[in-house]
Every structure is written in C-alpha cells, then in structure tokens.
Design brief:
Chain lengths: 70, 816
Amino acid sequence: MGFLLTTLIFVAIGIIASLCTRICFDKGPSANLFHLTLVITATVCCWLMWAIVYLAQMNPLIVPILSEVE
Amino acid sequence: MMDGGTMDLMRSEPMQLARIIIPIESAHRTVSYLGDLGLFQFKDLNSGKSPFQRTFATQIKRCGEMARKLRFFKDQMMKAGLLASTRSTYGSEFSLDELEVKLGEHESELIEMNANTEKLQRAYNELLEYKLVLQKAGEFFQYAQSSATNQQRESEELRFGEGSMDSPLLLEQEMTTDLSKQVKLGFVSGLVPRDKSMAFERILFRATRGNVFLKQNVVEERIVDPVQGEKVEKNVFVVFYSGERAKNKVLKICDAFGANRYPFTDDLEKRYHMITEVSGKLSELKTTIDVGTLHWSSALQSIANQFEQWNNLVKKEKSIFHTLNTLSFDVTKKCLVGEGWCPAFATVQIQKALQRATDDSNSQIGAIFEVLHTKESPPTYFRTNKFTSAFQEIVDAYGVAKYQEANPGLYTIVTFPFLFAVMFGDWGHGICLFLATLFLILREKKYSSQKLGDIMEMAFGGRYVIIMMSIFSIYTGLIYNEFFSVPFELFGRSAYDCRDSSCKDATTIGMIKVRDTYPFGVDPMWHGTRSELPFLNSLKMKMSILLGVAQMNLGIILSYFNAKFFRNDINIWYQFIPQMIFLNSLFGYLSLLIIVKWCTGSKADLYHIMIYMFLSPTDDLGENQLFWGQKYLQILLLLLALVAVPWMLIPKPLLLKKQHEERHQGQTYAPLHSLDENLESDLDDESHGGHEEFEFSEVLVHQLIHTIEFVLGSVSNTASYLRLWALSLAHSELSSVFYEKVLLLAWGFNNVVILIIGIIVFIFATVGVLLVMETLSAFLHALRLHWVEFQNKFYEGDGYKFHPFSFELVISEEDD
C-alpha cells in the first residue's frame, strides 16, 4: 500500500483517537493535555515499530530459502 | 511549562509550608477533621523530646491498652471461628471514654467466662478419668477374684491343707478371705501417662525394694489430661503395698510422675453405685459446659459485629494523639501551633475544615492558617488515579522525584508497556494476558475489599499495567506475525513467490520478491525457512538500536525542559546541547545509516563504516558509500563529537565558580565566625540559606565523572537496548519449540490419547514458561531499560514523598 499512504493512515488514527479521548474524557485543560500526550506517544511508538519493519522489507538483501522437509 | 498548560503528572503539585494555630479546646476536633481531609503533612515540632515526655503520652497509653483489649477479643474470636464483620459505620459515634468502659466490661466478662469454663472442663476430665479407673480396675479385680476363687477351689481339691501360698494371687485371696490380717495391705489406684509407665514401675520397685505389686491396664483411647488439657495416652494402674513407709513412698512417687490417684473400693456394690453417680455428674457437667460455651460464643458474636468499628475508632484516636504530640504549645499556653506541608490547591479546603472545627467545638477564638516561606525542599505530590498510580509507583520504586522536576512516570505509562511488548510479541499470548487481567479488572470492587495473598496482591495492584502490556503485545504480535508462533496472512498476500512455476530453486537459492512489500508486519513466508533467523536477527537488532536512540533522545530533551523550568541556563548551554550533539553525531548517525541502507537496499557494511569512521576517517569509502558526501559528513560529525566532550566538561565548573563569587560578592568581607554562628542558629522559619560551600575541585571532579559517564554510557546504553532483540528472539524460539515439538508431534501420531496429553503439556508449558516466566522476565528488563538507560539522562530522584495525615491511610496501613 505504500509507505506514505500507511503513514498517513497512522496520523489519521492518531488524530481520531485524540478527538475521541477529548470527547469522552473531558476533565479540564490539564487532564486533556495529559491524555493528548499519552495518545500521541502511543501513536508515535506504534508507527515507529510498523515503519521499521516495513522499511526493512522494502529492499531485502536476504530472501526466504525454504527448508528441505517442506 | 506554561501555567495554563501544565499537566498534573508532569511535575509535582506546588506545595507550601503552612503554620496552623489552634485553640486548645478545638485541637482534637481540628486534627480529626484534617485527618478526614487527608491533605496535610504535619512536621514534628517536638522531635527533641522522647516519647514519654510528650504532652499526650498518657492518652496514647490509654489507646494502647484499648488496642491490647481489642487484640485479645480478636484472639478469642479466632478461637471461636468468628470473623469480624466488615460493616464500617454501624450505629452511633462513641466517644473514647465510653468505648474504654465498654471494652473493659467485655474483657472482664470474657476472662471470667474463660476461667469458669476451664474449671468446669477440668472437673469433667477428672471425673472421666475416675470413671475409667473404676471400670478398668474393677475389671481386673473381678477377674482376679474369679480366678482366685477358681484356684482356691482347685488347690483345695488338690492340696488340701498345704500352707504354701506362693501363687501370685496371694493378695487377692487374702482380701477375699479375711481383711483383718496382721499385715495391713493398702492399695492405690489411678492413671499414669503411658510413656512414663515403665519408669514408674521400675522406680516403684526399686524404692520399695520389690515389696509392692503393680498391675497396669492399657486404656485404648486417648484421654484429656485434666492438668494439661491435652489428649494423652494413659494406663490404669493399681499398686498394692504394705506398711506406712511404703505408702508414703508410693504416694510421693505417684505425685512425681503426675499420676492422678482416685479412690477405689473393692466392694462390688459400692463400685456400681459410684459408677452411676459419676456418670450422672458427668452428663450434668457436660450440659453446663455446653451452655457456658454457647453463652461465650454469643458474647463474642456481639463483639464481632462491632469489632471493626471499635478497631477503626481506636486507630483513629491513637493517630490523632500522635499528631497532637507533634504540635507545640505557644507562649501563652492557650494555643497549639503546628507546621506542615500541604498542596497549594488545598488551602481553601483546609481553611474550611479549620473553620468548621472551631465552630463545632464552640470556641471563641478562630484558628489561624498562614503560609510560611522557606528554602527547605518540599515533599513531592502527584495526584494519581487508580490507573496512573501503578505506573507512578514503578517510577517511585527507583527514587521519588525531586520537588517539581519532570516526572518520567508520564511517559512510562506508554513506553513501559511498549518496550515490554517489543520483547513479548505474540498476539496469542497477548490475548491470554488480556483476558486474565480483564477478569481482575471486572472484579475490582470485590477484590479491593478482600485480603489477598502476597502474589495475588501484586498482580491485582498492577492490573492496569498488565492490561496495557497485553494490549501492546497484541499489536506487536500482529507486527511480528506470531500467534503461538504461527504466522497468518491477515493483511494481504505475501510478497514472496518462487522464481518459476516448478519451485525447484526454493530450497537452494530461495524465493524472490514479486509483489509489493507485505503491508503490515513481517511477511508470513519467513516462518520455518532456513534464512528466517539471519533476517529476523538483523531486523530486530536494528529495531532495538533505533528504539533505544529514540528513547535516549527523549530523556535528554526532558533534561532540557527541566533546565528551562528551573531557569538553569548553564545546564542548557553546557550540558543539554553538547549531550545532544555527542549522542546524535554518533548514534543518531548510525540510525540514519540504518534507514538509508533499508531504503536503498545497498549492500554496505555498517560495522565497517562505523569503525573506520574512527580509525581512518579520510579514507575512500568505496562500496560502502551510501549517499553522496558521506565522507565529509562523517569527518564533520567526528569533529563535532570530539568538540562536544570538552564542551561538557570545562565551561560548567568555571561558570558555577563565577556565579558563586557574584552571589557572595558583598560577603567576602564577612565578619568573624562567632556572628555567623548566631545567624545559623535561627529556627527554620527564618530559613536563611546559610553559607553554601563551594569547592572548585569538587565541582570539577563531579563534572568530570558526569562527562565520562555520559560518553562511555552512550555506547553501553545503546548496546543495552539490544536486550529488546535478545528477549524477543528467546520468546519466539520458545514458543515455536513448544508448538512444533509438542503440539505438532502429538498431532502426528494420529492417536486421540496422545493428542490430549500433548495438548495438556502444551497448555502447561505455555502458561508456565511463556505466560508467567517470560512476562516476569520481559517486565524486569523493560523496567531496567527505564530505570537506567532512560532515567539517567535527566532524572535526579532524590526527593521525598508527600505523606499526609489521613485516616484512610492510617486504617489501611496497620492491618495485621
């Protein structure tokens, strides 16, 4: 699906999640900032993990070699 | 951070030192209301005094007495098998005096009942033994009598008139024939413990030189010994002796062996009469004892209903008096003065509580609440809810944050479960963990009021941490594509296929990438291939480095925010910036190389590049060239890193020295030492900063250590993140071994019994090794990564925790 497209999907999910937490758990500006921080950190971590695994497979130097028994 | 935008959890709540002045008549009530509020930490103003010199020592002793009585009640309740009901506020409020009287009454009643029961029980046991003696001794007297009459008849028939009386039944004969002989025989009967019976016999024999006759009979069942109250095995014995001296000796020996003696008549009728009498008395006693026990347990039941309430009241009062002890009397002796820490937001609540207390106690003077200014370091207070408190405890276990420094707990809420998940990565196991903790969370209310075992307590306390861990594990499991080590093609088709339709090269040269990269996670084709490990190892190692560099950069950026908050410009320019430059020019550059190599698919050797960047930076890169201008970039980065080291080391101590000299400019002509001592002896209200000691050599050495630690630490910490790779490899290998060598093997036999055994072994192995051991292991390593590699970039952690005087804490604390 392409690297950029999926990255944009992650960004969109992040924005939707922050909006949802703002709507569902609105408890004042300090708590809102806290929830926002958590959501953004989680989104960044998840995206990072996905991106690393995706980039590593884009131009592979090793290919799968099936084992004999198969 | 800006005022409107500060988060609760980022820095400690602003705390203030406050002084309260309360009139004496409302003191007790004030402290009680403050305890209900639970937001004020009292400082001990009487720390010099010993516990016995304090004002309210007698009150505390009273409370201690009452607590002792309550403990006695608890013991008695446990003996009766009752539990204290957990109904909290039941009935009216008692005052301490009323409660004291009540407890005293109950205690004396219980003690009396216990003593009576003991007496009755003892009498009962004695009667029981007496009955046994009557029965058993009666048996062999009768047997002896009957065989004696038989023998006499025989001997009369055989040897009439012979005087030889050397039958062992001599004594019985004499007794049956003529009691009024010259030799007065007496006998003693009773019970002796079986383990002492042999020694008893021997000593009797020796002491009386063989002139006694002892007959013992075993009692089959165990009897309760009246003196000791335990069940002991006993023998019934009868000792026959002649003469006064022998009688005294026998009696003394019986006493020494603890053998209980009971009167015995050889008259058959009298014996029967005694037995019936004793049986009657026994049944009477039994009913009396039963009634007594019933009365005792009903008294205890009424105590048990109110036990919790009394217990809490006593604990509360004791804590109130301890707190009152920390206050000091003021000059007029009409008021008590207290000092303590409270959060700034609680000021209004505290003032309201003080007002209410003075109103309720009808005092004419109101309480005074004033804020003091001090240079002392306040305690750290974070307002946490049940979700964030577990994470905050994890951080606090390493060290409580210094007052108002950045709290790593904020990021730990996300990064800790995330790093755990990188090491745990299997969505099947993740789902199991999720379901287990979901169960705990749904039963929250029930479990939080129960008393749980140690391990269960820890698991329950950390339920929100574990559920976050499990959610992230499901995510990383989907990325690593492992469901109990089995991959699935969930997100589209695999990218790899055979080179030609016959697939004959698949096992020698391998497949090729024919379609687009697998869109989410690791391609399912990799599992089970020969080149799986080299690929995954390379992937996971590089991932660990990238994640590690990211987290360490976050740590250094937090140190920037700390420096900005405390307005410490020196730290920004001469610590933050050179640290960023050093870390990123070396390991940031490595991360960049990794990403570029992945994007371009070049065959460059990154080890080679990094090592020769240091050894011979001016050499040509040749086939290791990843992008244009790489050589010059490398030389530049190397120089930057080399410059950063003295930048971290030298300017800061020099500037600190200059700062110190500027601050104490006017005091260089300080007066003589005696005046300084007077200044220093002021109370903490004045809180003069005092003369700060500044030793230049000390500061320089400190900075040197800090620099070396950072420089060497940047290499070792980055390598330390490779544990993310190591543990994730271990987890996936273990899980694939259990799957292939247990489940698939059992399946291969085509036998239902072996399959069932295989499934059971698989389940036990998965739960025991993977779900418990691996969870703990990954938890521990993720914790270490946070505590050491992340926090040593910015965290000082030498504060102390805010521990307010709160009844909730008091009641939940000492539950034994």
